[in-house]
């Protein structure tokens, strides 16, 4: 039996009272605006605090979950037991010898803008990706022909035992929207991106073009988890969903976007249960009509 007061006091000793929230609604911390309560939501400010929280989790045998900004994640309505860690206070970005070093909680969009300001090219593709640096590595985020593995040099991570490691990009098995980070239970602290000198106006023009494409095609006016499904071999998920006449169809407050069929939007205070039900409806319908299995890109965690 977990002694919640005891755990709370130990977490406060590590991360201070203002960085430890109890029974916090995770819908307030996810891009999708979905999710029930976390027993403890902790926002460490230093790498040492991250290490100590991981070690505390191990010592107390209390479940531990890492949460980015939840842009490619659905947290179920029952919330998450134990400690939920978010690195949103670790947002520093700097440059050394054409390498941009960004902490895990920094928005990858901000990292691409920082690179532009330094006249460095290579991260233009990331100018519209809504996740954090940690989340971008977690799923090898990509867009418009670029992906994290194209520019990642190495990452500083914390392992399951609380040890800090330096891992090269090759060590992370970066594939299509995947890495070995979740399987190994790693927490990304910072990423080192190897970029190259470029022309400011040319980099800016590419980013403006990609931003226009994103804003004109994607339903950014509503919360969502971004592109829900991986691209099936030989097809486009959005086209299959569109041809299944599912746009505008929904359950409760969640529906398939009328602007981009590959997105499911939280249009009106949807629950995670409703959102997941729409995902399953889309998968079932596309399978029946076209015989194609749509595989989720978005991750689902938490309790019912």
Automatic annotation (TrEMBL):
Instruction: Return the protein name.
Output: UDP-N-acetylenolpyruvoylglucosamine reductase
Q: Active site: which residues?
A: 177, 227 (proton donor), 297
Which keywords does this chain's UniProt record carry?
Cell cycle, Cell division, Cell shape, Cell wall biogenesis/degradation, Cytoplasm, FAD, Flavoprotein, NADP, Oxidoreductase, Peptidoglycan synthesis
So what EC number does this one have?
Answer: 1.3.1.98
Q: Taking the first listed entry, what is the main subcellular location of this protein, grouped into a coarse class?
A: cytoplasm
**MF terms (GO), sorted A to Z:** FAD binding; UDP-N-acetylmuramate dehydrogenase activity
Q: What does the similarity note say?
A: Belongs to the MurB family.
Q: Which cofactor does it need?
A: FAD
| Keyword Nucleus included in the entry's annotation | no
Q: What is the lineage of its organism?
A: Bacteria, Bacillati, Bacillota, Bacilli, Bacillales
Look up the record and report any one GO term of the cellular component aspect: cytosol
User: What is the main EC category here?
Assistant: oxidoreductase
**All copies of domain FAD-binding PCMH-type, residue ranges:** 34-213
| Gene name as annotated | murB
* Cellular location(s): Cytoplasm
**What Pfam families does this protein map onto?**
FAD_binding_4 (PF01565), MurB_C (PF02873)
What catalytic activity does the UniProt entry give for this protein?
UDP-N-acetyl-alpha-D-muramate + NADP(+) = UDP-N-acetyl-3-O-(1-carboxyvinyl)-alpha-D-glucosamine + NADPH + H(+)
């Amino acid at each position: 039996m977990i002694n919640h007061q005891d755990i709370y006091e130990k977490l406060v000793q590590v991360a201070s009272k203002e960085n430890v929230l109890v029974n916090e609604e995770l819908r307030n911390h996810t891009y999708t605006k979905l999710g029930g309560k976390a027993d403890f939501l902790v926002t460490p400010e230093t790498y040492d605090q991250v290490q100590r929280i991981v070690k505390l989790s191990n010592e107390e045998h209390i479940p531990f979950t890492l949460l980015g900004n939840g842009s490619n994640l659905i947290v179920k309505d029952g919330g998450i037991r134990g400690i939920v860690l978010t690195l949103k206070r670790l947002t520093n970005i700097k440059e050394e010898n054409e390498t941009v070093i960004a902490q895990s909680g920094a928005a990858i969009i901000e990292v691409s803008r920082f690179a532009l300001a330094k006249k460095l090219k290579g991260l233009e593709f990331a100018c519209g990706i809504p996740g954090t640096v940690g989340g971008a590595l977690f799923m090898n985020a990509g867009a418009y022909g670029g992906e994290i593995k194209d520019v990642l040099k190495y990452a500083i991570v914390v392992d399951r035992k609380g040890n800090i490691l330096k891992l090269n990009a090759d060590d992370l098995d970066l594939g299509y929207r995947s890495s070995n980070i979740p399987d190994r239970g790693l927490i990304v602290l910072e990423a080192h991106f190897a970029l190259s000198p470029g022309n400011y106006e040319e980099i800016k023009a590419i980013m403006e073009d990609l931003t226009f494409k994103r804003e004109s095609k994607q339903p950014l006016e509503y919360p969502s988890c971004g592109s829900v499904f991986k691209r099936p071999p030989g097809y486009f998920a959005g086209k299959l969903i569109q041809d299944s006449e599912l746009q505008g169809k929904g359950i409760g407050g969640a529906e398939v976007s009328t602007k981009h069929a590959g997105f499911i939007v939280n249009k009106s205070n949807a629950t995670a249960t409703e959102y997941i039900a729409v995902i399953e409806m889309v998968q079932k319908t596309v399978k029946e009509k076209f015989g194609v299995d749509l595989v989720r890109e978005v991750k689902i965690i938490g309790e019912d």
